[in-house]
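# nightly structure sweep
# worker-07 picked up a monomer target from the shared queue
# config: single-sequence mode, recycle default, output format = structure tokens
# input follows
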Amino acid sequence: MTEPHNERLSDILKRLAQDHNPDLTLGDVVRALGERGFGALILLLAAPNIIPLPPGSSFIFGVPLVFITAQLMIKQDKVWLPQKLMNAKVGGGRLPYLLNRLVPYVVKVERLLKPRGTLLTSSLGERLAGLAGLFCAIILLLPIPGANMAPALALCCFALGLIEQDDLAMAGGWFGTAATVVILILLYLFGTAIFAFLSNWLAP
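# output follows
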């Protein structure tokens, strides 16, 4: 379990939002977040997937999430991303605008969170959360209709739990992961039933 941070994520995001440079890259964000990188980056990359996105958008967010959650799983100290991702502009050059929209919601959520519990936010708990987060990130990479919201919510909960060392938020992440598995099973069963129906209907 890591020690809670004195500076809240919303304060860091406010500073980033005040940088009106439209060429801010993912690497700039990683450096600004410092040791808060894992939880904060997971939140920033997962949150947009909660709403319906244009085709292919979830893949753009999912690739760095795979790298970040895998490193959380193996308990790497600092976030590492390939240079191509580090040089990528975040939000298509509209990062300050997007952060200004995000900060009020982060402030509201932070009021509900506090350091509590030691099980899910222990060192082992964080590694297991990295494993579950990696699974959710991989699901985001796949073009599965209707399967984005649950893993995105799970990742956001894990991120908030990591940031605030809150077992309750981490439990929300595990609930979202379980919901993701259930949704995948239901989609598989639905797809299998449709395929069987069409096969019988089209059979000579």
